[in-house]
Design goal:
Helix content is about 45%, strand content about 0%. It is mainly α. The relative contact order is 0.14.
């Protein structure tokens, strides 16, 4: 109970600090972007709600290669993308999907979702099958591979070369699992921080996205002109 009280108090204080610049009140040595950074959870100390420790380790390693750091923008781990995925899977995204058959796994994409699995099950079964395939193909768990082998494994997962059937998974294939993981990684990188990812609005700052500003009509018709204002999140945080 004491821990919960301390956590709530910390969140309240940080939220207050974030709100001060929006009201025109300067906080010496602390910018709104820095306050937003402080308010976001630490990836190192985060305890997954949905993933098991083994699943979480693979997700961290995969996200790190799908959007690696050190480029022109922040990486997936810098922006808490795995936290976004975990929180979304623990909520409605992971469990609420129409699962009344019949299912046709060979149907064209225009006919919509054809798997008898929830998104949660896609991750659970996909992670297990992919890691089992990595152990057969490379002699090691995916998260323990060197970076070049991780990239190679993900490319084979994307192309469908990673054989899930050999691990007993006859419904889900590697390509489908890769597409889910990649789509959610992109979403976590670009979504509003309220959903767990895009820590400190770093990705918005990198691409010049204004976020949830109430109005920026005067900039709509100005082409090839850098947008000068910092982004704003749904909760009023400023990057």
């Amino acid at each position: 109970m004491l821990l919960a009280t301390q956590t709530s108090r910390r969140k309240f204080l940080l939220s207050s600090l974030i709100a001060l610049p929006a009201m025109g009140i300067a906080v010496k040595g602390l910018s709104a972007a820095a306050a937003a950074e402080l308010a976001a959870p630490s990836l190192d100390g985060y305890k997954p709600t949905f993933f098991t420790p083994a699943e979480w380790t693979l997700v961290l390693a995969a996200c790190d290669r799908l959007i690696p750091g050190g480029g022109r923008g922040p990486g997936a781990l810098e922006t808490n993308v795995p936290i976004f995925i975990d929180q979304q899977l623990a909520g409605d995204l992971g469990s609420e999907v129409y699962l009344e058959g019949p299912f046709d796994l060979n149907a064209p994409p225009t006919l919509g979702y054809q798997l008898p699995y929830t998104i949660q099950q896609i991750y659970q079964k996909g992670i297990a099958a992919f890691d089992a395939w990595c152990q057969k193909a490379y002699g090691e768990h995916f998260a323990l591979l060197d970076l070049a082998k991780r990239d190679d494994a993900l490319k084979k997962l994307q192309s469908g070369e990673a054989d899930f059937a050999a691990s007993g998974e006859s419904v889900l294939n590697g390509k489908l699992f890769f597409n889910e993981l990649l789509n959610h990684t992109r979403q976590g990188w670009l979504a509003d921080p309220i959903y767990g990812g895009n820590k400190g609005m770093k990705s918005w700052i990198a691409i010049g996205f204004p976020g949830a500003r109430a109005s920026y009509l005067e900039w709509v018709a100005q082409h090839n002109v850098p947008y000068p204002l910092s982004p704003v999140s749904l909760t009023g945080q400023r990057g």
